Amino acid sequence: MTREAPGTDSSRSIQASRETAEQPPSKRGVGTATKRTDIASKVRGTAIYGSDVSRPSTLHAAVLRAETPHGTLRTVDTTAATDCDGVVAACSRSELRGFFDDRIRHVGDVIAAVAATDRETAYRALEEIEYDVIEHEPVFDAATAVQAGAPIVHENQPDLKQHRQHPIEVTNEEYVNNIDDYHAYQHGDVDEALNTADHVIERSYTTPRVSHCNLDTHCCIASWTDDQLHVETTLGNITQAQEELGDFLEIDHDSVEITVPPTPSSSFGGRSLPKFTFEPVAASLSERTGRPVRLEFPRDVEFLAGETRHKTEWELTMGVTDDGEITALQTSVIADTGGYPNGVGHIVLSNGRDRPLDMYRIPNYEYEGVSVFTNNVPAGEYRGIGVTQGTFALESHIDEVARTVGMDPLTFRSRNLLEEGEDRSNGRGPIDTSGVTECLERGQRTFERITDDRSSSSNELVGRGVALGTHTTGSGAGDGRDVSEAELTMRTDGTVTAKTAGVELGQGSDTVMSQIVAHEVGVPPEAVRVERFPASAALDDSLGAVASRSTYLIGGAVRDAGTQLSSTLVDRISTALDCSPADVRIDDGTVHTDRSTVSISDLLEEEITVVGRATADDAPASYGAHFAEVVVDPGTGHVDVRTFVAAQDVGFAINPKMVEGQLEGAVLHGVEFAICSELRADNGIPENSSLADYSVASPVEMPNQLECEIIESAERSGPYGAKGLGTPSLPPVAPAIGNAIRDAIGNRITNPPATAERVFFAMAGRDFDEEVPVDE
Amino acid sequence: MKAAQFEHHEPSTVDEAVSLLESLDEPTILAGGQSLVPMLRFRLARPETVVDINGIDSLDYLREENGFLTLGALARHADVENSATVADRYGSFADAAPLVADPQIRNRGTVVGSVAQADPKGDWGSVLLAHDGAVVAHGPDGERTIPADDFFLLPYDTTLAEDELATALRVPTPEPREGSAYHKLKRKTGDYAMAGVAARLVFDDDGRIADAGIGMTAVDITNARAKEAEAHLEGERPSPELLEEAGELAAEESNPESDEHGDASYKERMVDVLTQRALADAAERAGVVERRVPQ
Amino acid sequence: MSTDSTGDYDGPVTEEISVTVNGETVTAEVEPRLKLSDFLRNECGLHGVRVGCEHGVCGACTVQQEGRTVKSCLSYAVQADGMEIETVEGLAEDGSLHPIQEAFHETHALQCGFCTSGFVMATKELLEENPDPSREEIETGLADNICRCTGYQNIYEAVERAADRMEGGE
C-alpha cells in the first residue's frame, strides 16, 4: 500500500470559505472552533455511560433468544429457572407485558427473560428454561416475501406506529404479503419519455444490511413507581420513544418517563427509538419483580436485536438525450424491514422517492417503493436512513448514464442540477439555498490539486470518482408541525442554564447550544450549562436528537431564547446603571458602558428565565459533492481509498472544528459501507455477529488523505444560516468510492461492499452473484 | 458471560510445569492468552485447571545459537517485530510479525503459543514449515524435538502429548544465499488471514534454487506445505514464468473452504498470487534477482 | 445462545492478588476467571476502562501493564498479581491533564468519547516508543482501536500535537 504524507490542514480551506461567507449578524461565540464542553470527563475516563450506571437493589436481566428465524412457541417452561438461587422472576414471552405474542420472527427474538440478583445467575438460569417451538417456513428475500403465497411474518398487520403515519394504498397487484409500507408516485409521462429518449439505461443495485456497531452496548434500567414507568436508556428521540413504549406496553404515554444516562454514547440512528426486545423486556421484568431491572445487550445481540440499515434492491431506468439531458427516471425499490418495524419504513421509502428531485431536474418521474417484513433481523434507523441506499443507486446509475452518453460524469451532473430558486420537478416549492455548485467547484479544485501530481505504477489500478448527495434538515415535512422549545435561566452569578430536548450523543450539540447562548447574551461558553428538560416539562419538542435537526431546530429555539434573554438582561442592567440600553455592551460576562466596567453578577439581583421557540416551516436541503481516488491491487482486488475530498454545504458552520469532525465521521461510515461492512446471514442467522468477524473501518481503511471543504450557503431559515449536517454528509461517500472503483477496473460493483473478493471477480469479468450467493 | 470457574496454577520452572501437566486432569496451558481468553469467555473451552507459564522466566528469549534461531515459549510477537537479528536475516519472520493481529495483542501473545494453538489461520505455522523448523517440547521423559512437518494434525490439534509443554521453536540460521518472505491477505486490519504464504529460497553458487520451502496459511485443515511447488522450483533458475508455475501448483495443492473470510475459489486464486509474491521477495532478498512484483 | 448446562459450580475458588493500580496497591480476593478489565472496573471502580467487545477487538479497555499496553479484556486479574497497572484515570497529575489528554481535548479528537480511554493509552505507548511518529506510523500504531464517531483524523492530529508537546519536555 502506498502512503502519502499528511495533506495540508483542511482548516485552511475552512478559513478561506469563511472570508467569502456572509458574516453572521453578531460576532461572539458562533463561527469559532471553541473547545467542546463535554470533553474533560471523557478524556479523564470519569464519564458515566449507560453501561456504567448502577442503582441500589437493581436486578440483572438475561434474555433467552430464538435460534430459529420463524416459529410459534407452543410451551415455555420457566419453572426450573424460577427455582434457581438468586432468580427473582422468569417470564415466558407471553407473560411479558404488551404486544408480545407467541410468534418468533427472527433469530434473536425473545423467548423468555429472567431477572436475578446478578448477571451470571440470570444467564445460568436461562439454561434451565425449556421450550417447544413449532417451526414455520421462513422467508428471507424481501422480493419473495412480498409476493402472494409467501410465508406470513405478521399474521395481523401490526399496528405499530407505521400505519398511522400515512394511508397506505397498494396499487401493485404483485405486492400482496408482508407489506410494512408502500409508496407510489409519478409526474409527467415516463413511458412516453423513455420511448422517445436517445438513450435508455437500466440497471439494478443492491445495498447490504449493516450495523451501527456503537461501541457502548445497549444498556437500560427500568423501574416502576406505582403506575409510572421510568427507563434510563440512551435514546435520541425521547418524545416519540415515550409514545412508542407506551403503545407497546399498552399504558398511557404520560406514564412513561425516559431519561438518558449522564453521558449518552454514540447513536448514528441506532439509539433513536426503542427496540421491541430491549426496553419492553426490562420494563416487564421490573413490573413483575417490583425492583429496578437492568438489561444489557452482549455484543453479539447488538447485531441480532440492535437494528440494522435496511437492505435494499433498486431498479433504475433513466432516459437521456444525446446531449446529456435527463428526460425520465423510473425507480423501484424493495426494502427489507426484517421481523419488526420500528416505524421508519415510511422514511426509507419517502427519502428514496423525494431526494433525487431535490438534486436534479427530472421532468418525467415514476417511483414505487415497498418495505417488506421478512424473518431477517430487524432494520431500523441508521444515519442517512433510506437516502444512503438511494443515493448509492442513483449516483452509481448517473455515472453509468454519463459514460453511456459519452460525457464526463461531473459535466453531466452539472447539466441536470436544479438551481437555487428553481422549483422541484414534483412541484414542491423551489430550492432555497443550494451550495451544490460551489461544492462541486471547490471540491473538484481541491481534489485535482491533491491528485494531479500522482503517478501510478504498473502494479496498481487507479480510479477516480465523484458523487453528489442531498438530504433535507429535520423531519423533512417543513410544514410547521415540527417544533422545538428551549428555556434559558440566567442566575445572579451570571451563569446560564439552557434546557433543551437535545441529547449530546457525541455530535457536539451541547457545545453548539452553549456557543449560541454565549453569542447572543455575551457570556463565555463555559458559563453556559446545557441540560435536557424532562418530558414532563411544559416545554415542547417533537423529535429530539434525530434527523440532523439539533443545530437547526433546537439551536433555533435556543437562539430565540438567547435574544430574549439578552434584551431582558440589557434592560435590567440599563435600569440598574441608569443608562440607555444602547450604551450597554456585554462581552465575555462583563458589562461595559461609557462609564464603567462591571461583571453581570454584580448587577443582577434576580434570575431571568425565558422560553424560546422554533418551528420547522422549511426543510432546507443540504448538499455535498464528494470525490474519491482508489488504488486497486490487480492481483487480489484489494481496494485502498487513497484520497477523499468531502465538499459539503452546511449553511453556516457554528463550530467549524466540530463540522469537520462530523464530515470525517461520515466519511468513515461511507467508506465501510462502500468497501467493508455487511451483516451476512445464512437462513436468517447472522454469520458475522461479532466485531472480530464484522468489518468496520479502522484507521487503515480510511483514506490516506482526507480533506473537508466546508461550504456556507447561509440558509435563510436556520440559526445564523446553519442547516443539517450529520445525515446529509454520509450519502455521497459510498457512490463516490464505487464510481472510482468502476473507473479503476472497468466494471461496476453494483452490490457493495466492494470487498477484495468481489472486485477480483469483477476484474476477471465474472458475475460474482452467480458464483457465490451473497445472501440466502 | 464469564468463563466457567477454573483453578489457576503458576509454575516457575519448566519441570514444575511438566509435573503439573502430568498430575492435573486435562489442564490447559495459558501463555499470552490472546486466543485462549476469548475461547474461555465464550465457553468454547472449559478447562478445570489452567497452567499459566508466564512466570517461567527461562522461557523468555529470542536468540541465535548453535545454528538455529530459537524462540522461547514466552517470546511475544512484538519481540520478533522489534528484533534486529530478525530484521537483518529472517525476512519471513520480519514480514509476519507486524501482520499478526494488532500491536497490543502482539505485546502479549506468544509465537510458540500461536503455533501450539494450531489454528490453521495462524501465521507462524506457515513460516515454521517454510523454514524446515521444529518445535521443542518438554515432557515427563525430558526434551524432544518435533519437526514442523510432523507437528500439525488437525485444526487445534498437534502431536504434542497432553503432558508436554512446547518450550521453544527453532529454525536453521540462513544459508549464505537465502531469502524468505511472508505475504498475507486479510479482510481488515488485525484480522486472521484469509490466505497467507511463507516462502524461503536457498540458491546455489550457480544461481539455481537449491532448496525451496513454501508454507500456506488458512487454506487447508492445518498450516500446510506446497510440496509440488517446492519440487518444481528446485534446480531451476528463478524467472517470472517459473514463479507463475509454482504459484499455480501451490494453488492446486491448497484445499481452502468457503467461510466468512471468503469463497474457496477466491482463496485458491490468492494462494497463486501470494505464492508468486512471496517467492519474488525471497529471491530478491537472497540477492539473486532484481525486484519484480508479479501481477 | 451458546450456554450449556453443567453441574460444575462448587462455589468460587479465589486467590489473593496484590496489584499496583495507578500507583496505589490494591489487594483483593479474586476468582481466577475474573478478567483484568472487570477487576479494574468493578473492584477498583475505574470505569474509564471501557468494555466494547469483550474479546480483544475494539481496544476500548486498553491499559498499561508493566509499561506495555494490553487489552485488559484479554487477560485475567490473577496474571497481574504483583504488577503495575496504569489506566486512563492515572494519567492526570494533581488534577492537570496529561499532555495526551490535553491534546485530545484541544483537537476535538473525540465525540461520544467511549473509545477515548483506549486511544489515549495506546497513544501513550506509541509516543513512548516513537516520540516523533509519521502519520502512517500513527495509523498502524493505533490500528487496534476502533472509533465510530471521528473518522480518526482529529485523533491523528491529537497524537501529533501531543508528540510536539512531549518532545518539548513537558
UniProtKB/TrEMBL annotation, chain A:
Bias-annotated ranges (Polar residues): 8-18
InterPro entries according to UniProt: Ald_Oxase/Xan_DH_a/b, Ald_Oxase/Xan_DH_a/b_sf, Ald_Oxase/xanthine_DH-like, AldOxase/xan_DH_MoCoBD1, AldOxase/xan_DH_MoCoBD2, AldOxase/xan_DH_Mopterin-bd_sf
Domain spans labelled Aldehyde oxidase/xanthine dehydrogenase a/b hammerhead: 44-135
Pfam families per UniProt: Ald_Xan_dh_C, MoCoBD_1, MoCoBD_2
Annotated segments matching region Disordered: 1-37
Molecular function via GO: iron ion binding; oxidoreductase activity
Domain of life: Archaea
SUPFAM superfamilies, per database record: CO dehydrogenase molybdoprotein N-domain-like, Molybdenum cofactor-binding domain
Protein name (record): Xanthine dehydrogenase family protein
UniProtKB/TrEMBL annotation, chain B:
Domain FAD-binding PCMH-type: 1-176
The keyword Oxidoreductase is annotated on this UniProt entry: yes
Renumbered residue ranges of the record's region Disordered: 229-269
Designated name of the protein: Xanthine dehydrogenase family protein subunit M
Residue spans of biased composition, Acidic residues class: 242-257
Record PROSITE patterns: FAD_PCMH
Skewed-composition ranges (Basic and acidic residues): 229-239, 258-269
Source organism of this protein record: Natrialba swarupiae
Source organism, top-level taxon: Archaea
Flavoprotein as UniProt keyword: yes
GO MF terms, alphabetically ordered: FAD binding; oxidoreductase activity
Keywords: FAD, Flavoprotein, Oxidoreductase
TrEMBL record, chain C:
CDD domains: fer2 (cd00207)
InterPro entries: 2Fe-2S-bd (IPR002888), 2Fe-2S-bd_dom_sf (IPR036884), 2Fe-2S_ferredoxin-like_sf (IPR036010), 2Fe-2S_ferredoxin-type (IPR001041), 2Fe2S_fd_BS (IPR006058), Beta-grasp_dom_sf (IPR012675), Diverse_Oxidoreductases (IPR051452)
An example Gene Ontology molecular-function term: oxidoreductase activity
UniProt keyword annotation of Transmembrane helix present: no
Residues of the 2Fe-2S ferredoxin-type domain: 15-91
Alphabetical UniProt keywords: 2Fe-2S, Iron, Iron-sulfur, Metal-binding, Oxidoreductase
SUPFAM superfamilies on file: 2Fe-2S ferredoxin-like, CO dehydrogenase ISP C-domain like
Pfam entry (one): Fer2_2
Keyword presence, Iron-sulfur: yes
Domain of life: Archaea
Annotated Gene3D superfamilies: 3.10.20.30, [2Fe-2S]-binding domain
Full protein name: (2Fe-2S)-binding protein
The organism of origin for this protein: Natrialba swarupiae
